[in-house]
Amino acid sequence: MSGTVVMKFGGTSVADAERLRRAATRIVAKREAGNRVVAVLSARGKTTDFLIAEAQEISPNPDPREMDMLLSTGERQSCALCAMAINDLGHRAISLTGSQAGIVTDTSHTKARILDVRADRIRQGLDEDAIVLVAGFQGVSTAKDVTTLGRGGSDTTAVALAAAIGADICEIYTDVAGVFSADPRIVPEARKLPVVSFEEMLEMSASGAGVLQLRSVEYARNHGVRIHCRSSFSDEPGTVVVGEEETVEQPLITAVTHSTEEARVTIKGVPDTPGIAGRIATALAVANVNIDMIIQNEPVSEGALADMSFTVPRSDLTDARAALAPLASELGLEIQTDEAMGKVSVIGAGMKSHPGVAAKVFTTLGAEGVNIEMISTSPIKISCVISGEAVPGAVRALHAAFALSGEGTIRAERPFGEFV
Amino acid sequence: MSGTVVMKFGGTSVADAERLRRAATRIVAKREAGNRVVAVLSARGKTTDFLIAEAQEISPNPDPREMDMLLSTGERQSCALCAMAINDLGHRAISLTGSQAGIVTDTSHTKARILDVRADRIRQGLDEDAIVLVAGFQGVSTAKDVTTLGRGGSDTTAVALAAAIGADICEIYTDVAGVFSADPRIVPEARKLPVVSFEEMLEMSASGAGVLQLRSVEYARNHGVRIHCRSSFSDEPGTVVVGEEETVEQPLITAVTHSTEEARVTIKGVPDTPGIAGRIATALAVANVNIDMIIQNEPVSEGALADMSFTVPRSDLTDARAALAPLASELGLEIQTDEAMGKVSVIGAGMKSHPGVAAKVFTTLGAEGVNIEMISTSPIKISCVISGEAVPGAVRALHAAFALSGEGTIRAERPFGEFV
User: Fold this and answer.
1) CB contact under 8 A, B80 and A70
2) What is the model's pTM?
3) Which range marks the domain in which residue B101 is found?
């Protein structure tokens, strides 16, 4: 069977001449199997980092519009080089910039959002039997300026193009083999998941599993794009991300994810006055600090002082401290921080109809002697903030408790070959 | 006084952070003097060579369309970085790609010609008080593909933009101080020429003086764009290139130019049959070999064999030999080559009305003991092919014979300051 396929290759998959030729060979093989092929490429290896360093050498705070003009060149170079390699393999390939590919974005430089995909030129290339290569991570704004979509934006480019041209599948090639039931470096018996739902993938992306960029999964869910995450170094099938209605069976728990990059901020002595929490949250938002979980202790009596705790990515902690300093001195707040926090999460679409999961998570962690500092839940996820050093043991205990490596939880696999 | 100025900076003028900041400072100074400023930048230092090496690592014969997509990124990076530097100096700058700047070309990838300049976006930027930076060397084809104008094409970009926006002057900043009456490395007393005519500059560009790209001078002449060649490392005025009608006085000889990069090809035993010379020239043209001078010895009797000699740039000699090999074996021709040839030329608009110049050139070279191998002339130029090792002495002798360093030949200088 044949169809239309979007293939996305990350920076490590095109980092040197040999890898770039290997990507070209995979693209050609997909074409020779009878598919119409669009490939989205990232900048080669360290190119983006190099360009950022060049900018920082010139300006301490580079203009965002110009940063986009600068950074967008890396993906264009990858695409031009890959087109050369494909042409040498006897197929016709054309490279397109994000603008030429019709990726129209808003004007938020360095973090633009896609507004529209006018894929006429891609369709025309495919109709002329060409393989179309599109520079990832970029578009053209409604003001006709070059924009970029933020780090990892090439995933979103690929998904958006797949939606626009009605591709049968969007294949994301990375240096991992797919999505696992837990990080195999911590849980050697972790299982590669043949299928996960968008909702599960969103929770996993948000809670530490870095395979796919969160926004690309949202875009895929909203536009019904089937994603296949797979290794660029092997032909093994990876993990297909599909709508929940397509999953054959919903296991209670699909995966355990974790992060050891959390920090906790505790603000002591918060006046029990309306508006204070809002001022704290606003100060952090202005500083672009992402707050994850928040807990506020009720004051014991009216007019007493409360404590407020929240977690942030550890890399945001310095910014968070700076953002809170003026409020702290104004209101006499005491700020405490703990940099060595971690988080474990269990995720599963089947959790919705099984209320006992939380109890099992807490019991399992308790039996391991792990102290739970904060908890947050969604219909398909339970996350616990714990100390960073307790994370590996907690992940292993939860993975075992929910029997995630066992055959009992395996879903009916979809036949991967048929899509492409 | 103020006006509209196009400034062009070559790759060495933006090669590192310090030089790029210096270019930004010059651009800002021009703006602060009250001018509307458009600046055209080349790729930084060795960027283009690096990109070419990347392409050659991927493909022995890279697709020209993709080569253009690849190479055009270098100038975009320069412009983005320079815009950041200018913004830090408190002025607003925007960078534009060749496409955004409205440089429309034909579809001859890697050597495209400019068909039209739709400078609306540049005008809009200037009207909004911005400094507009344009990526040199590139445009967008009528097929909406990225094109490049060939090596040195940034000069042509600058001149074309100056014509399109009606700039008062197009300033070309390079690492030399201007156009000299001879190469100062050979003739230390050579004089910087304050003014030369387009016609003289064309002959000089074609005969070895590498200050300006030939095509940019043609474009400037055809569109009446005044060019000012000057040093990016000094505030001294350089050389202004203007229409002949603007030159106050026409000295007999303006400059002596030379080249030591010539090779001679002699074809012996050419049958005196119509069409043979045409086949030879066609074979060389197909191989993209530039023929300079041609001499054919008349055969002594009808049906006898003739000799044909021509000069080519030494770098084209291998291609020339390869192109002639099939003809040589078909027709039994003998090919001789001499790689160590040079050329000296005297150039001057006043020559037109003074027929004695050729005689003086030949006499001067004869007195130096220099053997003249081939001669070609135009109304304002006499070129002699001589042995490569005789070139420095010949240049010095001609420079002295025509008294080019003497005050007697100085023209009335134009007041440079007034233009900008």
Assistant:
1) yes
2) 0.83
3) 4-175
